[in-house]
């Protein structure tokens, strides 16, 4: 029997840098390789010495590109040429960039392009131009406009002509349908089960409240800082994992930080994961999330989650995984409630972990992925 071949095209590999999209692409590619498929992965490298070379990482062949902008025609050509050499049956893009254009130009009727939505803005037309107007001053908008426009056109072609599209929640599904007239399947995110499971009774006494993510303003880290300040005279510890490239922004953000708040700065994905073993509660202060990796990382460890609006499809509230609240004061009350009574904490912690084991393991993710593309005729015959 001839083994089918997958090829992922991503901005980065999480071993070097990246975020949630790269984490999920890593896990999906690894598990597909373990399941007997041939798996390749095309991405940029931050090392000029690695460009144009290949590495094997967990049975996945990684093809490194030069670290050029996403809209670089040179890199799009390299992706195309690499696809010609690999000749994959399925090309997977778990992000929204111009890279997908190479897949559309390359594939034939027997090869399928699968696009996986990562965030709630990804299905929107002219996403990059919208972001420029929201984040940049006028001079930078003008300077970046050609690149933003070309990137948007390229990624929109990729989305439009994808053989199968996956979305993570109802918001993404509806936007994709409205803006592209394209139906989508539901993508389940997954993570490996932790090697060591800390029992709820012990986790309760850790007394640590965790925040983990990029310190960008859209994540609203200042709300977590204010939350820590409320508990400054308590026995609770607050831990903020993550960083930001703007040093002056960080200095301003953490000016007069409360004494019970510890900061790690930017750390590797593996190191960030270790901090979950120290936490009793996870806090997310974003207004919107596609489906945050931190949720699954927390749930598989039995860590209840408190969010401030970022509850995709109300999964947290519906399944008693924590709380979705509106204000800092409400968050403080829920923290006090969770860490005020050990038996109550243990009950919700066990429920959280049970839910994650049923719905968000690596095995569940890959089984769902393969079933969906089979049912939607994405697999070549």
TrEMBL record:
InterPro entries: Glyco_trans_4-like_N. It comes from the Bacteria. Keywords: Transferase. Pfam families: Glyco_trans_1_4, Glyco_transf_4. GO terms for molecular function: glycosyltransferase activity. Gene3D superfamilies: Glycogen Phosphorylase B. Residues 19-117 form the Glycosyltransferase subfamily 4-like N-terminal domain. Coiled coil: none annotated. PANTHER family: GLYCOSYLTRANSFERASE (PTHR12526:SF630). This is Glycosyltransferase family 4 protein. It comes from Christiangramia aestuarii.
């Amino acid at each position: 029997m001839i083994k089918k071949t997958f090829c992922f095209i991503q901005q980065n590999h999480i071993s070097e840098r990246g975020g949630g999209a790269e984490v999920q692409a890593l896990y999906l590619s690894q598990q597909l390789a373990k399941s007997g498929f041939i798996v390749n992965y095309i991405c940029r490298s931050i090392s000029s010495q690695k460009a144009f070379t290949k590495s094997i990482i967990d049975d996945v062949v990684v093809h490194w590109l030069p670290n050029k902008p996403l809209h670089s025609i040179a890199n799009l050509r390299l992706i195309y040429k690499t696809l010609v050499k690999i000749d994959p049956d399925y090309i997977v893009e778990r992000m929204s960039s111009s890279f997908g254009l190479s897949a559309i130009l390359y594939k034939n009727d027997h090869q399928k392009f699968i696009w996986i939505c990562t965030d709630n803005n990804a299905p929107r037309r002219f996403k990059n131009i919208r972001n420029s107007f929201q984040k940049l001053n006028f001079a930078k908008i003008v300077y970046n406009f050609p690149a933003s426009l070309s990137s948007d056109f390229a990624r929109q072609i990729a989305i439009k002509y994808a053989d199968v599209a996956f979305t993570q929640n109802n918001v993404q599904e509806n936007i994709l349908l409205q803006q592209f007239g394209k139906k989508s399947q539901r993508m389940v995110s997954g993570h490996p089960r932790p090697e060591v499971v800390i029992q709820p009774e012990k986790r309760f006494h850790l007394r640590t409240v965790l925040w983990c993510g990029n310190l960008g303003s859209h994540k609203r880290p200042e709300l977590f800082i204010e939350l820590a300040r409320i508990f400054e005279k308590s026995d609770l510890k607050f831990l903020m994992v993550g960083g930001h490239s703007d040093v002056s922004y960080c200095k301003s953000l953490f000016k007069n930080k409360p004494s019970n708040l510890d900061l790690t700065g930017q750390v590797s994905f593996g190191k960030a994961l270790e901090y979950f073993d120290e936490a009793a509660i996870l806090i997310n202060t974003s207004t919107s999330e596609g489906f945050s990796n931190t949720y699954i990382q927390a749930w598989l460890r039995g860590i209840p989650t408190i969010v401030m609006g970022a509850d995709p499809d109300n999964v947290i509230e519906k399944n008693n995984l924590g709380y979705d609240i509106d204000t800092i004061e409400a968050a403080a009350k829920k923290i006090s409630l969770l860490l005020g009574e050990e038996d109550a904490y243990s009950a919700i912690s066990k429920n959280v972990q049970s839910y994650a084991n049923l719905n968000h393991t690596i095995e569940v993710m890959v089984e769902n992925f393969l079933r969906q593309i089979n049912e939607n005729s994405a697999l070549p015959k």
